Amino acid sequence: MKKYTSVDDIQDLKEFLELAKKIKADPLANKKLGKDKTIGLLFFNPSLRTRLSTQKAAQNLGMECMVMNLNTEGWTLEFGDGEVMNGAASEHIKEAAQVVSQYCDIIAIRSFPTLKDKEKDEAETVISSFVKYASVPVISLEGATEHPLQALADALTIEEYKTKERPKVVLSWAPHPKALPQSVPNSFVKMMKKMDVDFIITHPKGYELNPSITEGVTIEHNQETAFQGADFIYAKNWSSYNDYGQITNQDPQWTIGKKQMELTNNAKFMHCLPVRRNVIVTDEILDSEASLVIPEANNRTFSAQAVITKLLTQ
Ligand code: CP
User: Fold this and answer.
1) SS3 state at 302
2) Do 293 and 286 meet the contact criterion of CB atoms below 8 Å apart?
3) Rounded to two decimals, what is the model's pTM?
4) What CA–CA distance (Å, rounded) separates 117 from 115?
5) Of 102, 103, 155, 228, whose CB count within 10 A is highest?
6) Count of CA atoms in the C-beta half-sphere (13 A) of 219
């Protein structure tokens, strides 16, 4: 594997999950793999879990880790080809990516979408430019359209907690006061399509995700119908894809609470975090035994460690 910027980069999910499970059982077993190697974590946006879990994963492999909030601490970057750089940008990605490649053996980047310019977001300008100009492997710490490290942790969590061979997994839209990216649901959908699960998406009309990603997946606009017999409820807000970046619904009926969870097969509740309590999900569910959000966040370390291990060994 040369990069991990999309769930599409996974060739063999089963093998990947076996590796993550092995790492989780003994996280320090390969402490020498990353000796004298460095990972650079570059953030254009805030993070708690991704930053700390990736750092922890690197440490578990004996790697050095450099972290930079590029949006506030670095030069403003230019990504366009042939630009006359007489505006705000001081440095071109061509130099920046090559320079960082000399300091790091892996570069990992977080860069959220604009949610205004769909074409630019879908081009994944920041991450794809690093892939193009860096001479070392690149990991997405969440890009404009995908969050593949989160999806790998989600897959590992479902594997660990499933009680039947083919569980029913429901991805449910939930309300939120701010416009959020489609990255987490996009990667989750891609991941569920790779897994042996009975997968349904439920959302209000107008919140359809990119149809090329959801192709072949059942979409149910009635949340109660979708929740019937579910084994896992994965809650997430996203802004409209068609009415790009807009909030077109904030109906609190979609907040996940006891009423909805009682329709399920004693389902486990999942969310990538951070989560807005009593907006996305009620306290009652989040604080209940059904909630997997803490072990799910713990799995971020082992999924990141599996990705770094693959990049260092292949
Ligand atoms: N789930 C997730 O990516 O969390 P952070 O935004 O805190 O990294």
Assistant:
1) helix
2) yes
3) 0.98
4) 6
5) 155
6) 16
The tokens of 264 are what?
């399920």
Find the 292 Cα to ligand 1 centroid distance in Å: 15
Q: What is the pLDDT of residues 12-40, one digit of tens each?
A: 999 999 999 999 999 999 999 999 999 99
Ligand 1 center to 149 CA (angstroms): 10
Residue 178: both structure tokens together: 């701010």
- Map tokens 């993550």 to a residue: 20
User: Given this model, what pLDDT does residue 1 score?
Assistant: 86
Contact at 8 Å (CB) between 53 and 300? yes
**Residues at CB less than 6 angstroms from ligand 1:** 47-50, 142, 150, 272-274
Structure tokens at 42: 């570059």
Pick the CATH number of 149-297 from 3.40.50.510, 3.40.50.1370, 3.40.50.920, 3.40.50.10610: 3.40.50.1370
Instruction: Ligand 1 pocket test: pick from 48, 56, 111 the residue with the most ligand atoms within 8 Å of its Cβ.
Output: 48
Q: Whose CA is nearest to atom 7 of ligand 1?
A: 48
- Using the mean position of ligand 1's atoms as its centre, give its distance from the Cα of residue 87 in Å: 32
Fold observed for domain 7-146+300-312:
Rossmann fold (3.40.50)
Q: What is the CA radius of gyration of the chain?
A: 19
- CA 274 to centroid of ligand 1, rounded, Å: 6
Residue 66 burial (10 A CB sphere; 0-12, 13-18, 19+) = middle
Please check whether residue 231 is in contact with residue 238, taking contact to mean a CB–CB distance below 8 angstroms. no
